[in-house]
Target: Phosphoribosylglycinamide formyltransferase
Amino acid sequence: KPRIAVFASGSGSNFEAIAQAAADGELEAEVVLLVTDKPLAKVMERAERFRIPSVAFNPKAYKDKADYERTVLGRLREEGVDWVALAGYMRLIGPTLLDAYPNRIINIHPSLLPAFPGKDAIGQAMDAGVEVTGVTVHYVDEGMDTGPAILQREVPVVPGDREKTEAAIHAVEHDLYREALRKVLAESAVTE
Ligand code: GAR
Model:
């Protein structure tokens, strides 16, 4: 089975959705590691509940991004990681990790990219007054929320209600991430 590491900085609801799908056999993969840059993030508790090993690295403790990523990469190699899934990991991926995992790092973002990249995509969409926003899962490159889309799904904005809009987006995210992972894993199994 392909071995996935999830990178997350926050609550980790997407981490949990992926871990649950793998545990239920809905995703033919194993989540072998959680990597975080925020040791106090709630996602750490979720990893513990799933008995998935986790590791927290403080990027500020390294001399630069390359140095930080070399350390992360060392850990990924120890765990035999094949794929990296970013799930609310609020940091750009640099060449060290991109070169080590070409077309093997994917990300989820709460908008219909290329609309509303970066932070608070849901707030950006509401402020812009759009009626429909959505979710994108895409391959990661050096840009912020750029890279070829794997799957996208629309989600209607609930006008003036951020909480409801956010809940709807999160629900779609949890399904879409599982589907996108199934898709990329199936495609790579064919070409290998
Ligand atoms: C998700 O909505 C994800 O799409 C977003 O962070 C949230 C993390 O939620 N990512 C980005 O905005 C990336 N630019 P979670 O911690 O509950 O999975």
Observations:
- The pocket of glycinamide ribonucleotide is lined by residues 8, 10-14, 87-88, 108-110, 121, 145, 173 (CB under 6 Å).
